[in-house]
Amino acid sequence: MTFSISTRRPVGKTALELPVLGLGTAHLGELYGKVEESASRATMDAAWAAGVRFYDTAAWYGRGLSEHRLGGFLRTKARNEFQITTKVGRTLHRPSDPRTFDRSPWTGGLNFEVNFDYTYDGIMRSYEQALQRLALDTVDALVIHDLDTGFHGDKQAGYERQLVESGMKALVELKKSGDIQAYGMGTNTNQALEEVATRVDLDFCLVAMPYTLIDQESLTRGMKACLDRGISVIIGAPFASGILVTGSGAGAKYAYGAASPEVQARVQGIEEVCKAHDVSLPVAALQFVLAHPAVVSVIPGAARPSEVEANVAALSVTIPPAFWSDLKSRGLLHPEAPVPA
């Protein structure tokens, strides 16, 4: 089974349909290293030339830099030729002292302080700020961003109340008015996918880490809940933030940090099966997530043209069925995980 970049899948019960492959733009916010303006533009040019027509961004990516870069590119294109999603829940503000402001965890990015706000006014303000940074008058869908304990700790319950009691009204209103076609929630953990995302009605979930070639713990829990409720899934980190494209070894990243010995060992096992069947690790990672019936699109990031081109090419590679059965027989893949036919 192979995939075509022109294939579109419906999002939940909405009229929105998304291509199976899009471009995530966190790297254009300079997460792991600086990205020159010329490289940023060349990456987006390569994506467009390869047929990519779905783009995802966020205020958090480079503290506004990713939205500025992506918007500067897309505003030169006909609006009916692409689709874009961005995120709400954070507003950006001038820091009290720009000279000493710490932009971490971004290597580069911009000098803007972040304020979390999931109320009606906060959602609306972050939406309006995003339109201005993007220089676009519409986005296709909005994503509730990073509403999990990893970011908020003991403030989590308060932010959840903001969303349930106030913020959701803004998203419902924007969808009803036609400003957006759909709304969803971004999740970084199994807990958030299972618990937080089920507290509100959603059209889709943008799942960053809980479902990859490394980890399918959510298959019978969070992912099953999405499938049962008719909530579509966009996979936001098919390479698990790095290791499934770079491979194991020194410097490998997992979950936006250094890969643990346990993760390294699991990936080394997958690499052995890849070698035995002459299958590329990133190709397997990308195609695996698209086989799940709830998944409508996958949006790997890229910071150079060659990365975009490799992701597009990965869709058309044929992977032998024996590869998937071998992974399962070795306990490296959940026995019930859907795989490309």
Oligomer: single chain
Number of domains: 1
CATH topology: TIM Barrel
Low-confidence stretches: none
Which structural class matches the secondary elements? Answer: alpha/beta
Question: How is this structure best described in words?
Answer:
The chain is 38% helix and 15% strand. The strands form 4 sheets. An 8-stranded parallel beta sheet has the order 3-4-5-8-9-10-11-14. It has a two-stranded antiparallel ribbon with strand order 1-2. The chain has a single domain (8-329), classed as Alpha-Beta Barrel (TIM Barrel), CATH 3.20.20.100. The chain has 12 helices and 14 strands. With 341 residues, the chain is an alpha/beta fold. The chain has helices at 37-49, 65-74, 120-134, 149-152, 156-177, 190-196, 222-229, 243-246, 261-277, 281-290, 305-314, 321-329, and strands at residues 8-10, 17-19, 23-24, 54-56, 83-88, 90-93, 113-116, 141-144, 182-187, 204-207, 232-235, 253-254, 257-258, 295-298.
Structural topology:
Elements (H helix, E strand, L loop, with lengths): L7 E3 L6 E3 L3 E2 L12 H13 L4 E3 L8 H10 L8 E6 L1 E4 L19 E4 L3 H15 L6 E4 L4 H4 L3 H22 L4 E6 L2 H7 L7 E4 L14 H8 L2 E4 L7 H4 L6 E2 L2 E2 L2 H17 L3 H10 L4 E4 L6 H10 L6 H9 L12
Parallel strand pairs: 3-4, 4-5, 5-8, 8-9, 9-10, 10-11, 11-14
Antiparallel strand pairs: 1-2, 6-7, 12-13
Helix pairs in contact: 1-11, 3-5, 9-12
